[in-house]
Write a structure and sequence with these properties.
By secondary structure, this protein is α/β, with parallel strands linked by helices. It has two domains: 208 residues, Rossmann fold (3-Layer(aba) Sandwich); 26 residues, no CATH class. Helices cover 48% and strands 13% of the residues. The chain has ten helices and eight strands. Strands 5-2-1-6-7-8 form a six-stranded parallel sheet, with helices on both faces. A two-stranded antiparallel sheet has the order 3-4. Helix 4 runs parallel beside helix 6. 40% of the residues are buried. It binds 1,4-dihydronicotinamide adenine dinucleotide (NAI). The site of 1,4-dihydronicotinamide adenine dinucleotide (NAI) has 30 residues, from helix 1, helix 4 and helix 7. The site of 1,4-dihydronicotinamide adenine dinucleotide has 30 residues, from helix 1, helix 4 and helix 7. Keywords: Oxidoreductase. GO terms for molecular function: cyclopentanol dehydrogenase activity. This is Cyclopentanol dehydrogenase. Its EC number is 1.1.1.163. Belongs to the short-chain dehydrogenases/reductases (SDR) family.
Length: 248
């Protein structure tokens, strides 16, 4: 028995980097996978390369900062599967700027994708997650939620908000059998930080802040996500239980 056999998993930003590794890992463990990425071409290519029990993964091009597109995404999941067992809010972007030069547009860009995107997906997926009975939401935060480097204030603040939101959702969703956790990866070798890891001077600086003295691989994060998505992670008794009755 594979660890995610017959579960339905939705991964935002699943066309590249960490999200793609998560999508591939979940499919290998038996999940049906939906990739929701704003890059339609890369999303379709990633989905086509992922074998699932029913054929291939599904790509639904989605910009998570656009509420109409998020609603259309959840409608598609409802139509195809009628429930959702795993939601990974992974889509994210960064902006590098000294805080005093950070304009409203740059701040809004980061906030709308990282925070509003996570909020909207977690909220609009609620009915589908509730139908699972044993659902798991995984929000991808960052080491930067608790640590700061220069010129990353918008990104750090957005990841801090995701971590705080995760704690609130964990409390509010638990009575419905929905677990909510976040992952806070360190430096992971993807396109997002490629321009830093590719520069020997900056790479040395970043590795100096990394106890293992190596950049993480997307698969490292996917392995952690796999545990949180699986039934091995602690789960609540779910809706309708005595525990639930006590909650009310
Ligand atoms: P990446 O840039 O390699 O991939 C991000 C994917 O998200 C891309 O396919 C992109 O098209 C998609 N995306 C961007 N905005 C979107 C939107 N509005 N709607 C839907 N899809 C969108 O990035 P990476 O490194 O794989 O990062 C994934 C997540 O991990 C992000 O939330 C990032 O903040 C977080 N993270 C990354 C770390 C790193 O060192 N790479 C460290 C800690 C956290």
């Amino acid at each position: 028995m594979r660890r995610l056999e017959d579960k339905v998993a939705l991964i935002t930003g699943g066309a590249a980097g960490i999200g793609k590794a998560i999508a591939e890992t979940f499919a290998k463990e038996g999940a049906e996978v939906i990739i929701a990425d704003r890059n339609a071409e890369d999303g379709a290519a990633a989905a086509a390369g992922i074998v699932t029990k029913n054929g291939a993964a599904i790509s639904q091009p989605t910009d998570v900062s656009d509420i109409a597109q998020v609603k259309a995404l959840m409608d598609r999941v409802a139509e195809l599967f009628g429930r959702l067992d795993i939601l990974v809010n992974n889509a994210g972007i960064g902006e590098r700027s000294d805080f005093r030069h950070l304009d409203d547009e740059a701040w809004d860009r980061v906030w709308q994708v990282n925070v509003d995107g996570t909020v909207r997906c977690a909220r609009e997926a609620f009915d589908l997650l509730r139908k699972s009975g044993r659902a798991s939401v995984i929000n991808v935060s960052s080491l930067m939620a608790n640590k700061h480097t220069r010129q990353m204030s918008a990104y750090s603040a957005s990841k801090g908000a995701i971590s705080a939101l995760t704690r609130s959702l964990a409390v509010e969703y638990a009575p419905y059998g929905i677990r909510v956790n976040h992952l806070a990866p360190g430096y992971i070798d993807t396109d997002m930080i490629g321009r830093f890891t590719g520069n020997p001077l900056i790479a040395k600086l970043l590795l100096g802040q990394t106890p293992l003295r190596r950049f993480g691989a997307p698969q490292d994060v996917a392995n952690a996500a796999l545990f949180l998505a699986s039934d091995e992670a602690p789960t609540s008794p779910g809706r309708g239980s005595r525990w639930m009755a006590a909650w009310r």
